[in-house]
Write a structure and sequence with these properties.
Elements lengths: L1 H5 L2 H12 L5 E2 H8 L3 H14 L2 E10 L34 E10 L6 H24 L6 E4 L13 E4 L4 H15 L5 E4 L1 H9 L3 H8 L3 E5 L7
Parallel strand pairs: 5-6
Antiparallel strand pairs: 1-3, 2-3, 4-5, 4-7
Helix pairs in contact: 2-5, 3-4, 5-6
Length: about 230
Amino acid sequence: MLEKIFGSKARVKILKVFLMKPDEKFYIRQLARDLKLQVNSVRRELSNLEIFGLLSSDNNNIKSDNLSNVLESDEKEVVGSEKKDPEGLEDDKEKKAPSIKEKKYYWVNKNFILFSEMKSLIVKSQILSGENFIKKLKAVCDPKFILLGGMFLNNDGAPTDVLIVADVEKSKLLNIIQDLEAEMNKEVNFTAMDEKEFKYRQEVADVFLHSVLNNKKIILLDKILNIKK
């Protein structure tokens, strides 16, 4: 869906990164590696988004010592303790200055007039991915409870991205999860259990389940708790 709105898969992948992580900075090769995109494609999209006003950038100089180019300044001893250049006629060799690597970093411009609207669109598209996930899951089982958290809400510290309560074959569930990962272009951390285990964890005040239910969440399906969304 987003590809049709924004024009390309590469642009959508890049937008998701910046809009879901608005406080972080990224450089071209980092994005190309993480998103599995061509460097030139990433460079072109970043340039267009910067011209559009959504992104800002700067150059950050990073020093890196090239040890192979550093020359020793100490005098070397020869056999019999005789020194080279005993009269000290040769000038001390200067160490070569550390090389400078320049990286151009990009970050999202949170003051951009459409920032909130575009971020909301990305979030809703991820929820839509979750709803597609439900449809596929319902085709192979009768799910009782499905919760989205973590990556869907830009909450990296969440205990899981998806909580599934269903009696489903592991192989079928893994296939559906792989489809979701392909759609999200990211590994999904999921937790699955049947209804009996879910209720038992509730009864014993399981720390993990308590953390999941009390973190930021989107409940897509609830046939057990009737929690307010």
